[in-house]
Amino acid sequence: MESLFGFLDAQSQRRRRRTSSFESLKRLGHISPAVQSHLKHASVLDPVLCAGLLRARRLPSRPPQRRRRPHLGCMVSIAGLLALPAAESQQRNRFALLMSAAFLQGASIGPLAQLALHLDPRILVTAFIGTAIAFACFSAAAILAKRREYLYLGALLSSGLSILVWLQFAASIFGHSSSTFMFELYFGLLVFLGYMVFDTQEIIERAHHGDMDYIMHALTLFTDFVAVFVRVLIIMMKNASEKSEDERKRKKR
Description:
Radius of gyration: 22 Å
Protein name: Bax inhibitor 1
Family: Belongs to the BI1 family.
Structural class: mainly alpha
Oligomer: single chain
InterPro entries: Bax_inhibitor_1-related
Number of helices: 9
Membrane topology: Multi-pass membrane protein
Pfam families: Bax1-I
Number of strands: 0
Strand content: under 5%
Low-confidence stretches: 1-8, 17-27
Number of domains: 1
């Protein structure tokens, strides 16, 4: 009987410890209320930007010579957003530039999305949901971690990004191969998943130092989201095409 009471007491103590640890995670004592409000404003804008991204995929297909125009327009919108001061009087103009950048970014990856819809409509939805879950998990890990804990990743991620740039430069000269393409795909996915954690903690640190520009911070997180989404979509399309090719070979046999 005493052993039974001891077992029950141990179980109750474990439940209390789990409850207290969960409550400590929800308190976020290392983040001030002002910074928490700033993170809410920046995170609320990301679903709006993703809506513009998905809306742009319905644009009609364009000739090859016109497919670069949305990408250039997106760069112009981002440059205009960087040029405008973060004043209260310019917030409406900056928000308009932010939405135009999201829409044009969606238009630039529209042919890829249409190809995914032609291959299997479920691929686009699954890639988007998977990217959203990864974004939520990695951002939550950065928010719940100690301040500056993941800022050391900046140097490693910058080195990885420079490797991707040099690989693209070498491929433009010597030509692409399947091995280098797969390395760029998976290595780039790993790099931008790391940027989700790093950028979230950098935004928190900047907000603690008075930088409350939630529009620019939302653009940073949205850029990470799009980079991961495109790579996840390409990987799923490649796997689906290989699976369909294997099924065709089996039917021929």
